[in-house]
Amino acid sequence: MAATGKKYREAFKKVEAGKNYTINEALSIVKGSAFAKFDESVDVSINLGVDPKHADQMVRGNVLLPNGTGKTVKVLVICKGEKEQEAKDAGADFVGSDDLVKKIQGGWMDFDKAIATPDMMGTVGKLGKVLGPRGLMPNPKSGTVTNDVAKAVKDLKKGQIEFKVEKAGIVHCSFGKVSFTQEQLVENFISLIGNIIKAKPAASKGKYLKKITVSSTHGVGVKIDVNEALEVIK
Fold first, then answer.
1. Are the C-beta atoms of residues 39 and 174 closer than 8 Å to each other?
2. How far apart are CA 227 and CA 234, in angstroms?
């Protein structure tokens, strides 16, 4: 723990207090200051000028990152009939219907994403209390309740991520790995922020993007200049 603390303090010294960095500068610091023995994720925290307590200010969507997430995603599909083969052919890791629902009810959770066809949502609804708190409940808005299961599976495997504003008006996402090149991280970041901007609710007044902070899993937070980010994304 002492060694880890020392490494964190050394990384912290690379960040100038109160300074907002360009996208490239910030991601360079994140890559250069990561010290964990594993390939850390690169995360972003975005403070938005919305009040999620109001339904018309909810921000939610998904984005297919151009360079993926760097993670292997286990995808489960709950469907019946010909859709089962369609899901398997697309690369789904687990495919089934009532049998999978019972397995999950029994405590099995060895998957990262769940997809369901609309006709199965009556059955899948039984899993709301299990999947909901983990952010795994299939939802039409995130593209995980669909009849086009092949596309949904392929997109999740390629690196599609979902973003959703939390109660405090903050969006948290991982958009790559420290091992990614600078260019890959920048491309993923711009794609993610661009989609969050497109998802701006009409009811949101005033400044929408208030603060953007990037970091690695165990690294220091680095603030990005919001105005510079907006210029790059235009």
1. no
2. 11
